[in-house]
Amino acid sequence: MRVVEVTAYGGPEVLRMARRPEPEAGDVPGRVRVRLKAAGVNQADLRIRAGYYADAVGALTPPFVLGTDFAGRLLDPVPGMAEGTRVAGFIPWYEELTGEGTYAEVVRVAPEWLAPIPDDVEFTAAASVPLASATAQTGLDRLALPAGSTLLVTGASAVVGRLAVQLASAAGLRVVAVAHEGDESELKILGAEQAVPRGTPAEVLARVAEVAPERVDGVFDGALLGQGILPALKDDGVFVAIAPDRIPPAERGIRVEPVRATPDAARLKETLEKVAARELITRVADVMPLEAVAEAHRRAEAGHRPGRIVLLI
Ligand SMILES: NC(=O)c1ccc[n+]([C@@H]2O[C@H](COP(=O)([O-])OP(=O)(O)OC[C@H]3O[C@@H](n4cnc5c(N)ncnc54)[C@H](OP(=O)(O)O)[C@@H]3O)[C@@H](O)[C@H]2O)c1
């Protein structure tokens, strides 16, 4: 089967098309196979490829197959889902460390990672959702803010932030979104009460202070601004950090919550049903063939994309 290997830690040029034997039914106990149609390109993929997480991925050394999010068709039946069912999910890379990611035609997955994709949701849209929605939902769980609280979401134009804005607003939080300039009105449609453009930390703090002069009860830091955005938070507020290297030191009684997403099939099923019902909006920026993976990584690294880049397999 066709796969994309990371041949060494480095820039997008280290990504190479390769051929590996296709997994066979039952060859790894507890795992089933999915024939992929689409794989999302995540920030974590870029960072693993570049070697930033070499410590976290431990004994795993190149060559390995990258990729976290996937959408495709079940090759082996699982309880409640027949062969051929359209499914999506993500591989919890940091727990698995098999080096068998989703930039591949066939992956082995645990049945408990899999949610069915509703008919109305395309494979490409489904592949943009699993890791991002798990991150947004886990972050909101950890915030545990009562309805009516104010929540600042940074990186609100991107996939994780956009979902956090919508889920928080649906849960009754008053959302202040820090967005890519020009996206403010869209974020308000998605549920943000206020939206301000991104900028330097000082500029963002000044803009947030204008719309939330009493400061906010919580921060969901989708843009990984870390310590720089802490002054926007009230004493005893709560800060959700979603990257291990951007966890600010606790101060003023602030509770800092590091978040790492783990698969939750039941929740993903509900989320994809909301996407199908247009109650939750995800966004795909580009759809590119698997063979164009190096270009996909270059685009993702070049900065603002209005949504997830998805590889078509
Ligand atoms: N903990 C976990 O389990 C987990 C899982 C998935 C993702 N993550 C992390 O979550 C983050 C968001 O994921 P994503 O897929 O949505 O990423 P993404 O597409 O890279 O989005 C990053 C967002 O941050 C914004 N941003 C970057 N620098 C900024 C700055 N200085 N000021 C304001 N905004 C800034 C970007 O703005 P522009 O749009 O203007 O460029 C973009 O909207 C990633 O860093 C990823 O590593 C964590």
Q: Can you describe what's shown?
A:
- With 313 residues, this protein is of the alpha/beta class.
- The protein has 2 domains: 2-128 and 283-312, Quinone Oxidoreductase, Chain A, domain 1 (Alpha-Beta Complex); 132-258, NAD(P)-binding Rossmann-like Domain (Rossmann fold), CATH 3.40.50.720.
- Helices cover 26% and strands 27% of the residues.
- The protein contains 9 helices and 16 strands.
- It has helices at 43-50, 93-96, 123-127, 130-143, 159-170, 184-189, 201-211, 265-276, 293-301, and strands at residues 2-6, 15-19, 32-41, 64-65, 69-74, 86-90, 106-109, 115-116, 150-154, 174-179, 194-197, 216-221, 233-241, 255-258, 284-289, 308-312.
- The strands form 3 sheets. Strands 3, 5, 6, 7, 8, 15 and 16 form a 7-stranded mixed beta sheet that branches.
- α4 (130-143) crosses α5.
- It is globular.
- The structure holds NADP nicotinamide-adenine-dinucleotide phosphate (NAP).
- NADP nicotinamide-adenine-dinucleotide phosphate (NAP) binds at residues 42-44, 131-132, 135, 154-155, 157-161, 178, 180, 198, 222-225, 242-243, 259-261, 303-304.
The helix-strand sequence is EEEHEEEHEEHHEHEHEHEEEHEHE
- E-strand count: 16
Backbone CA Rg: 19 Å
Poorly predicted regions: none
Query: Judging by the overall fold, what is the CATH architecture of the largest domain?
Result: Alpha-Beta Complex
InterPro entries: ADH-like_N (IPR013154), ER (IPR020843), GroES-like_sf (IPR011032), NAD(P)-bd_dom_sf (IPR036291)
GO molecular function: NADPH binding; oxidoreductase activity, acting on NAD(P)H
Domain Enoyl reductase (ER): 10-311
Pfam families: ADH_N (PF08240), ADH_zinc_N_2 (PF13602)
